[in-house]
Amino acid sequence: MIVQMIFFLILAIVVFQVLGEQDTQQPDGVDYTLILPADRYPETLKHIREAIAEGESAVCTIDREGAEENRKESLKGIPTKKGYDRDEWPMAMCAEGGTGADVEYVPFADNRGAGSWIGNQLERFPDGSRILFQLP
Questions:
Q1: Distance CA 51, CA 100 (A)
Q2: Tens digits of per-residue pLDDT, 88-126?
Q3: What's the per-residue H, E or C state across the chain?
Q4: What is the distance between the alpha carbons of residues 118 and 125, in angstroms, rounded to a whole number?
Q5: What percent of the chain lies above the pLDDT cut of 70?
Q6: What is the mean pLDDT of the chain?
């Protein structure tokens, strides 16, 4: 009996860790809300905040297969700059990305850290998932 209770307790903890971040009351048409860490990647988050304020979508429909083409289209004609990445919002992995995306030069360490963090958060979601990016 005690072994079963411990098993279910551990199972509950694991399930909570996996699903606990997900708000069960999502806005219509959104599968998950991702709250971005404001203190960790300030330059990238500043760009995202500004792009959304200027009318870019805060929702990303995951489309990993379209990422390469979206990146090509969004960065077309924007030269590289030493020490900086050309950050796109919406991101290339979003169906909303590509032509017309907002592009800003962001220090590469900040941008790549943010990209890695976001990628890790979204890896469990299949293509077609709609993610609302929420900024603190």
A1: 11
A2: 999 999 999 999 999 999 999 999 999 999 999 999 999
A3: CHHHHHHHHHHHHHHHHHHCCCCCCCCCCCCEEEECCCCCCHHHHHHHHHHHHCCCCCEEEECHHHHHHHHHHHHCCCCCECCEEEEEECCCCECCCCCCCEEEEEEHHHHHHHHHHHHHHHCCCCCCCEEEEECC
A4: 12
A5: 81
A6: 87
